[in-house]
C-alpha cells in the first residue's frame, strides 16, 4: 500500500504487507490508526466520522511549521491476485483513490479511471469492502461484543459470505420493482397512445397539407425573390446608367465651366481695354458740360442786358466773334452728342458683360456644387470599400491565426504527452530499481512530484502562451483596423493632397510625417501652426512657386506649403512660471526643416491652462501662449474653446501608435 499526502503521510510511503500477521508498532500520534484509515478509505469509505475527521478534506495533509500543506491525498492498494480471487484478468490489482482539496475525487483500477461501484463489485467476493467488518477500529470491538442477536446474525452472514448475496438480492428486487413500475408506465402510455391515435391521424393529415402549403409558400417566396432580383438588377442597371449620365453631365458642366472661364477672361480683357477710352470720354463730357454751362450763363447775361437796354440788338463789344462762338458751341454740342452716344453704348456693353459674367459665375457655382456632390459620393464609396476590405482582411487574419494556433496546440499537446509518457516511464523504472529498498524512496517520490509539477507548469505555460498568442492576434486585428481607418482619415482630398499625390520634384511629403510631438501636446502644436499643420513640405522657394503655379493651372484649389531651409531665429522663448518653449515639444526628423519649424514656433510658449497663459502674457506681452487643450492666447488675438475634430497631428500620432501596436502584436504572435 502506498500513501501520498494522506493525513500524516506527506511524502510517498509504501507499506509491504507480507503473508502472515503484520503489526504496526509506534507511540501515540505516530500514525498507526492512519494506516487503517487509509485501508478503509481506499476501499470506498464515504463517512468522514468513520475516518475520525470532520469532513472528507481532513484526510489531506494539512501542513506543518516546516512543510506546506498539499493539494491532494492519494492511496494505492496493490493486491496479489495470482490465485484469481478477484474477478479480473490480472495477477496484480492496484486500486487507487485520489481526493483533491477542491472537492473532486478519482478512482482507478490498474491506472484506468472507474467508478466507486466498480470497486465495490470487485471487492464484494473477497469479504472486503467499506461496509464489511474486516476492519475493526477503535471502539468497534466493544460494539461487537455487546451486539444483539440480530446484529450478531449480520456479522455471521458477513463472515459466511451471505451478506453480499443479500445485497445483490435487494438490488435485484429494487430493479424488479423499478421494472414493474416501468411496465405499468408503459401500459399507461400505450393506452394513452391508442386513445390519441385518431387525433394524431388527423394531425398527420393536417401536417401533410401544411407541408404542401409550405412547399407552395416556398415556391411563391422563390418567385417573389426572383422578381425582386430582376427588379434590383434593373435598378442596378439604371443606377449604372444614371451614374454614367451624371459623369457625362459632369464632363459637359466642366467643359461649360471652362468655356465660361474663357469668356469671362475675354470680357474682362475687353472691359480693361475699354476702361481708358471710357475715362477719356467721361473727362471730355465733363469738360463740354462745363463749357455749356458757361455759354448758357453768358447767353443769360446777354439777354438780361438787352432787356435792360430796351434795344433789339446790343452794342458791339470788342472780343470774339459771336458766330465763331456759336459755331464752336455747335461743334462742341455735336461732339458732346457723339461722346454721349458712345458712352451709352459703352454702358450697355458693360451691363451686358456684367450680366454674362454673373450668369457664368452662377453656372460655375452650380457645376462646382454638382462636382462636389459627385466627389462626396465617390469618397463615401471608397471609404465603405476600404472598411469592408479591412473587415475581410481582419477576419482572414483571424482565421489563419486560429488555424496556426490549432496546429501549434496539437504539436504542444503531442510534446506534452510524450514528456508525460517519458516521465512516467522513468518513474516506473526508478520504482522497479528501488523496489524493497526503503532508503532513497522519499527522493524518488519527490522526483516524481517534481516531474508532475514540471508537467503541470509546462501545460500552464503552454496555455498561457496560447492565451497570449490569441490576445496578440486579437490586438493585431484591432490595431490593424484602427490603422487602416486612421490612414483613410489622413488621406487628403484638397489641393495639398492632390499636390502630394502628383509627385512633384522637390516635394518631401507632409508636415505630420516630419514632426514628432510630445504626447498630449498634439492639439496645442496644431493650434499654433494653424493651416500649416496640414501643409506639404518643399525643399526651396522655387519648388514652392512651381507647386502654386501647378495648383493654379490645374484648378486644384488652395495649397499650403512649408519651405525647408529657413534660418532659425535668434534667441528662444523665455521659460518659467509653468511655461516652456513650444520648440521643446517638437522633434524634427529632417535637419533642413528644423529651422523653419523653429521660425514658426518662435516666441511661443506652452502652458497647461489659460491661467498660466494669462500669467505668461502678463510677464511678456510679446509672447504667444498655447495651452495643452489647444487654446491660443496673445496680446492681439485669441482663439480656442470646445474641442472639435481631432487635429491632423493627433490623427498622425494615433496612426503611428496603431502601426507600432500592430508591429508589436505581430512580434508577440510570431514569438
From TrEMBL:
What does the record list as GO biological process? Answer: chromosome organization
Q: Which GO terms describe its molecular function?
A: ATP binding; DNA binding
Concerning InterPro entries, the annotation shows: MukB/SMC (IPR050308), P-loop_NTPase (IPR027417), RecF/RecN/SMC_N (IPR003395), SMC_hinge (IPR010935), SMC_hinge_sf (IPR036277)
Q: Would you tell me the Gene Ontology cellular component terms?
A: chromosome; cytoplasm
Recorded hits in SMART domains, A to Z, give: SMC_hinge
Q: Report the SUPFAM superfamilies cross-referenced here.
A: P-loop containing nucleoside triphosphate hydrolases, Smc hinge domain
Task: Keywords in alphabetical order, please.
Answer: ATP-binding, Coiled coil, Cytoplasm, DNA-binding, Nucleotide-binding
The coiled-coil regions, if any, are 162-189, 329-373, 399-475
Q: Where is the SMC hinge domain?
A: 505-617
The keyword Transcription regulation appears for this protein: no
- Matching PANTHER family: CHROMOSOME PARTITION PROTEIN MUKB (PTHR42963), DUF4476 DOMAIN-CONTAINING PROTEIN (PTHR42963:SF1)
Know the name of this protein?
AAA family ATPase
What is the originating organism of this protein?
Georgenia thermotolerans
